[in-house]
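User: Can you predict the 3D structure of LacI family transcriptional regulator? Sequence below.
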Amino acid sequence: MRLFDCCTPEAYTSSNRFLKGDIIRKKAPTIYDVAHHAQVSVSTVSRVLNGNSTVNDDLRARVETAMRDLRFRPNRVAQTLYHHRSNTIGCILPDIVNPFFAQIFMQLEVGAFERGYTIILGNTISTRSLERTYLHTLAERQVDGLLFLGGMANDPAPLAEDLHLMQELADRLPIVAVNGDLPQVNIVASVRSDEAGGMQALIDHLHQQGHTDIAFLGGQLDVTTSLEKLEVYRQACAPPHPEWEQLTGLTLDAGAQALQGLLQAPAQPTAAVCINDLVAAGVLTAARERGLRVPQDLSLVGFDDIFVAQVLAPRLTTINHNYAEVARQALDALLAGINGQPPQRNITVPTLLIERESAIPRQPRRRRKAAPVN
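Assistant: Sure. Here are the predicted structure tokens for LacI family transcriptional regulator:
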């Protein structure tokens, strides 16, 4: 061969096995390979894979050893067709970046794994069209059941076509709404933390500390959980000024905006309940920028007990949803539905009041400095 002949296109192609795809991946072992390695029939391997109790211990051990030696992985699609089960659960939620949804999803995922299930997540980024897409996609993936958080389950007035879609899915697979509900749809169950009770516990806590002038910061009128908390607040506090209710949203920026609106009121409250901990963190940051002391000038409480509540200064008094119990009850309800044993339709989990340093007994009002006289 002449010098550089090996660099001709023909030689390069014939010698480069990557271009030909010869060693891109190794062929996966099959059930036939396992049978040959274990010196048993294919039907015996199949019975072991399907959990058939008629296989004697010696044959089962030989098959399991062969599977380990060959690093054999069962074909889950084939097993799904055989058992009519995929051992997967779909989970749809609006925002995995939101610490509340991240925390509840972590508990659901761990609990599902302990029960022998894998969760497939659909993160809709709070977009209804993507929510519909995930509903179709997960159903096509033949999940055994569906956990549904946020979105339609927290919409006080869902569209008729969305309800129709949900009902079509509910006719095909069990659905559990987590911290929400779809009362118009035949879902298996709604599993919720007692958010109304949690809001009442926060207000009672502030009342016990001498606060009677209390504001409500954050929330949205198109989210059922916001409306429930607002109703409890109105009944317990009867706010004298409209500015004491600031339904600005659910984010850090919503907290800063809520405080700005609150400061426009003709009189100021001594305490405020926030729709969640993110809003409370936004209020706290904005208060510092304006020279407002928390908790001396304004006692502040949040809701959700996400990690932020523990790292703020002062640390935040808040409500914990009892996440592990909510996840346990939701998974138990869904698995009951999968097994054809419908659970109780509405399940409520008690919340937990977490007392920290952001709310203290009512303090005497600071005198404002008089404006200089010209």
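The domain at 25-72 is CATH 1.10.260.40 (434 Repressor (Amino-terminal Domain)). The mean pLDDT is 86.
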